[in-house]
Amino acid sequence: MTTAVTAAKQPTSDVFPAPIKSVEAGSAAAKAGVRPGDVLLRVNGQAVTDVLAYRHLLSQGQATLEIARPKEAPRAMTGVPGTAQDHHRLQMTAPPSLDDTFTFDVEWEDPGLEFEEVLFDGIHLCANKCDFCYVHQMPRGFRKSLYIMDDDYRLSFLYGSFVTLTNLSEGDINRILDENLSPLYISVHTANQDLRQNMMKWWKLKVKDEKAVQIRNMIERLESIDLYTQIVLVPERNDGENLDDTVEYLSSRPNVISAAVVPIGLTSHRTNLPDVRTFNREEARDSLRRLNVWRKKFLTERGTRFVFPSDELYLLAGEPLPSEEEYEGFPMLENGVGMIRDFLTEALPELPAALPEPRRVILGTGTLFAESLDRAVEPLRAIEGLTLEVRAVTNKTFGPVTTVAGLLTGRCFRHAIKTGEADLLIVPPTTLRYGTELMLDDVSLDELRQEFRMDVRAGGATLGELARVILDGAQSSGHQWGMSAHAVKDSGHTPLEIEVAERGMRGQA
């Protein structure tokens, strides 16, 4: 459609300026003179909080977009001249003023804008102080963003992040229903309201609507929204009969699609936190026995197993993993449900009898997965000239109680690997930030290459791909953390100055 460009009023404080990253060539926005670096102020006179609201307004057919062109503000110095703080002063840039504004109209067409962020008003924060919250167990010294507790239903819809719902307002609930933000991913933990409050300890001052903390009420009110749920299982708290009751309730709700069960994850940094512990083998086996009874019942009655224990629960119990078929398409792969089975789905390729040159390879992984990985790569040890070791790397950052591979850091590998002891070190791809070779503590693979005097690469998403990385130096396409909701926090442009949060905390919401 033809665009109409008109003058507009100066912006006021009731907007959330959305910086524009790019403008599609030939689009309505391009014809109206919109440029990268401009900001969206309003659509149809309304402030826009996020890309979902933006798309919703456009879907109404006719839209007037109000655009501002920022004017760079002068730099200002901090500190007090002539005092002891004078030499510490920094040159700071104030937020740019929004001087030139204009509007253009579109009708049943995409304006052609791509934004720097998907959330224009910042990330919604958690209202809880859960006994098992991973953020509260973070050691000191990491980037500021890793201590931010996000709990945003919009990221749940966009990227599959688990949220608790306890921070929702009445307006949020109505918006979810009106805009049909389905599916959502919900951390339930228990259907027993008193136990849930005891475990999650929401702050009354942060709760916007008392009805939002009533989990059964919320699940039933959101009856038109498909819900994927999770239970973070804590020994002697919400396991045993409480687990049975929760599974029974969730399975009774038509809008609950499935439930993942993930054992509590701990670090060694639990100062001034409640006394909780991990599962021992018998407790893990008891939980699996209970869940398997339900899984068989649901498969017979509903054609789906409905409840899916995480890989970690099977490993803790010392029980074999289910078959690929039993994961029913791996709907909660990023929550640790089926990652190992998915890794094993592609078998090893045809292996050479020998290598052209001898090669020493170390596969570094978490202590929990090391034994399983060692068995999986055993056939490669028959290749002449290949020396292959699976090394269980103790977590020196979060403590030895943290056993999953995805939370290993550069520091962990520096403690576990000696300079020059191999030709190639392979690290789990889940330790790397999406699109980079940076680990959780900002140590890069290139730094490790220089320090260890060996090649360092990420492993593969499957066993077959891992073999190709070992034998041919192939590039990994494996899962990386930060590729979903946490990628939103990677930009550093939100009001909270969030940069990124690690993969692996998702299951602890």
TrEMBL record:
Entries under Gene3D superfamilies matching the protein: 2.30.42.10
Ranges where the PDZ domain occurs: 20-51
Annotated transmembrane regions: none
One Pfam entry name: PDZ_6
Domain of life: Bacteria
The protein's name in its UniProt record: Radical SAM enzyme (TIGR03279 family)
Organism: Deinococcus radiopugnans ATCC 19172
